[in-house]
Every structure is written in C-alpha cells, then in structure tokens.
Write a structure and sequence with these properties.
The complex is a heterodimer of chains A (85) and B (449). Chain A has a single domain, classed as Orthogonal Bundle (Non-ribosomal Peptide Synthetase Peptidyl Carrier Protein, Chain A). By secondary structure, chain A is mostly helical. Chain B is α/β, with parallel strands linked by helices. Chain B has two domains: 315 residues, ANL, N-terminal domain (Rossmann fold), CATH 3.40.50; 73 residues, GMP Synthetase, Chain A, domain 3, CATH 3.30.300. Chain B has an eight-stranded mixed beta sheet with strand order 2-1-10-9-11-12-13-14, sandwiched between helices. In chain B, strands 6-5-3-4-7-8-18 form a seven-stranded mixed beta sheet. The chains are: A mainly alpha (85), B alpha/beta (449). At the A-B interface, helix 2 of A face helix 9 and helix 10 of B.
Chain lengths: 85, 449
Amino acid sequence: MKQLDQIIREHLSAVAEDTGAQLTNEITPDTVLLQTGMDSLGFAILVARLESELEYDPFVIMEKPCYPTTYGEFLAIYEKYAPQN
Amino acid sequence: MLLNYLQTKNAAPAFLIDDEGADLSRASLAKWVTATRNQLGKLKGRRVALKSRSNYELILLLLLCDGWVEALLILPDDLSEEDIVHAYYQQSNIDAIISLGDALPSNLDVPQIEWLNTNTTKLWNGNNTSWVIATSGTTNVPKLVEHTLESLSNSVKLDPQRGRDIMWGLLYAVSRFAGLQVFLQSLMGGSSLLIGEKHEDIEQRISYFSKHGCNALSATPTLWRKILMSPSASKMNLRIITLGGEISNQTVLSALAGKYPNARIRHIYASTEVGVGFAVTDGKEGFPALWLDSPPSGIELAVSRESKLKIRRGKLTQSYLSDEVQLAEDDGFIDTGDLVEICNDRVLFRGRENGAINVGGNKVQPEEIESVISGVQGVALVKVRGITNSMMGSLVEATVVPRAGIDPDELRTKVMKRCREQLDAFKRPAILKMVEDLKTNASGKIIRN
C-alpha cells in the first residue's frame, strides 16, 4: 500500500497542474500551506480528490474542527482520521 | 446622513486607518466633507456616479455625497467596459461623475467632476439620498438596485459605547453589498476601520490587521478557511466574526469558535436585493426551523412549494431601478432563489435553484462548463453539478460518458486540457468522473441533481 504522504504529494502535483499553480521546489513538513504556491481553491480540490481516493474527508469527520497551517499538520490530520482496518 | 455619524459622541475618535497606518479622525473627516461640499456647490442635489480607484477613495466619496446629492451610483470595481458603464449612467440618469484624484483629506485639491447633464430645471431638496448599487449577478449583467441608507443599514448595531473599542478590518470591496455593510457598521457603530488594501496577500493583510489591533472581521466562509490556515491568524484576538456570501457549514463555524473563544460569531443571510435578511448567532449551520413560525423581528420567512426560501419585510424601500422587473412578488415576499431543506429543528441551505454553483464566492453556471466539455471529440454525454466541499462550500464536478471505443483515460486528459485552455480555474472540474451512462428523464434531459 502506498504511504499517505506519497498519495497526497501525487495529488498535490496533479492539482497544481490542473489549476496552473507553480509549486515551491521542496515541500517539507514545516512548509506553510499557503506558501506552497497553491491557493485555497487548489486545497479544496486536493481535499475533494483525496476523498475520492481514500474515501474519507477528515475535515468533515473531525470532532474538533481546525484547519492546518503547515504541510506536516495537513498530513497528520489525514493520518489521524484514516479508517482503522 | 453619514456626516452625522462622524460627529457621534462617544465614538472612537479615529475612524479610518489608511494603509500607512495613519489615523484619520472623525473630526478631520467631517471638516473635509464640509469644506469640499462648499467648494462643489453645483453638485448638491444632483445624481452622481462615484468613480474610485480604491476602497479608501470610495469611502471618502460616500461620506461626501450621502445626504447631499439626490442619488449616488456605485458600480463594481471590475466593470471596465465603457459601453456598459455608460448604459448604467444613462439608466440611473446620472448628471455627473465624481472622482477624488488626489483630493484627499491630507491636501487641498478639489475632486474632479465630469458633467453629463448641466440642466438645472429640477433640483432635489430631500434628505434621503438614493444609493444605487449593483447585484452580484451570475452570468447575467448585474442589475441595479435602489436602496436608501435606512434599508442598507437596518442590521447595523448603533452602540458607540461598545463600538468605540471595536477595530474592523476590511476584507471586501466597499462597492459590494458586504463591503458596504462593514463600512456602515464601523462608521455608524462608532468603531474604527482598517483598510489594508495594499496588502493583496491574505497572510500579509492579516498580519497588518493584527499589528494594528483589529478585533472584528467579516468575510466569506472560504476566506475564513484561508485565514484559519494562515500563521498570522493566531495573533489576532477577534471579538466579532461575521460570515456571509456563501453557505456557512458547521466545520468552519466550529473551527472559528475553537480558534477564537472570545468572539461573537454570526453568519448572515443577505443579498443586494433583500438587504440583510437575518443573522444567526447560535454557532450552528442553517437557521432555526422555529423562525418559519416566529421569525426575528422585522422579517417573515417562508419556504415555497419548490423548497425555495422567501423573505418578506414589513416595509420594503428598495427596488430594482428598471421598472420592468419587480423585486418582490405581489404578496410582498422576495423569492431568494436559494433552495432549503428542513432537517429536524434546522433549516439548511442546499444551493441555488438555477443550478448555479458557488465556488468560493464565484458563481458558476453548469451549462457553460457542459458546453466546453461536450465540444471535446469523444465525449458522448456530460453532466456538471456542484458538490459540497469542506474547504470551499462547493466545487464543480463533471461526469462524462465517452463515445463507444474511446479510451476513458485519454479522454480525461483531453477534457482537462480543454478546460484549462477555455475556463477560469474556479470553473474547471475539481472532480472529473468517467462513467458508462448517465440517467436521463422522460424528456431525454440529463438529471442534474
């Protein structure tokens, strides 16, 4: 099974291409999401496509809603709410 | 008139904070308005179009003109085609166009006036200036709606004792209904207003606002999500949070409540036609179903047989400028075109009746996208609809049926390429599904929802 990190990064690149966004060269866990080159529309699309593939949207199911600031926080939210198999 | 609110006792002495962080006091603005009116005597009682390059200039022009001219016309900033602009001038019987140029309160220049009609046979001598503003429109050309200061400010809280400690930040264009609300609330409520428009980047603007003590903001749910993702958001100590312009879902309301525990959070139902309909302050999405029987004061709410929300005001003072279209139905109700559903004790919003998709405040007609996609060779059928999204309210989803023998993956690439070439980013499908067939109704039309 592919790692979540890898899946998110693949979708991130595809969304960037579809929306015409220029992503920053390297995205590390500390990279601020709004400084990756992707705008809020891009993140909305990313969340929608991840939901199609992963079959969950953590921002809908989280009991205490919050929004991530960095890539590391974004990934952690997806890991935390991944369905337990 | 607005000038009176520059002279309110107990109000915050500084009203505008310009982009250099300099204060413009209420007293100095009142002095500027009076002096400028004296210099522009001929404009008194005329019908005037306000032409501004910035929110700052527009605010000054509004202070100058309200209560002094018969009508003021505010057109959207993005309306640049001259023919259309002049058609609006004609429709509103505009006598003159006023712009400030460099005639700012900091110097003694006189505003620039371009006269279209110098005939002075009739002269207005009233008190209530007509405010003519444009609807946000979908694919149509915006319609002009005629308001008064009273109909625009019916939800403004007038309490300078409390208001004087409030510092609003401006995130909307003042030429739009939502931006006017922020301007009117900060002026009439006795508060101060930070403009900050030179900071285009939201992170920079939020950082600028927090540095100057901003504690009240009004924005769309999409913009709020962006603010919540910005590192500077933690530096603000917000006391008033307003959401509007899109459906506010529970996720964004709860995230704001978690981040700003001291803030009063309200989501507003408003439109250029209705004015402010109502504000919901209980922190939950939608509004209480109880309001259909016992509504908040001043309005009545109803749900039509087609599940559309209708609103009636005791006294309706606004109207479309053109006589051909009526704003309200014969029974006084305004059909909002918003679809609602009653779920237990709440009335929840479900999108627009005409199928328009609201992508972060931009309205998208599905037909436009369908026509682009159906033009791609290999596409047999296409259906476009809005899907709800936790980050942006709604996004565009396209479902495509390929012609027999066409490879779906290759077609997907071609469709996305065509959309990139012909559509704005917010109109391109966020999700593109390839299916073998689409359901059609009895008349052969694709079932949209």
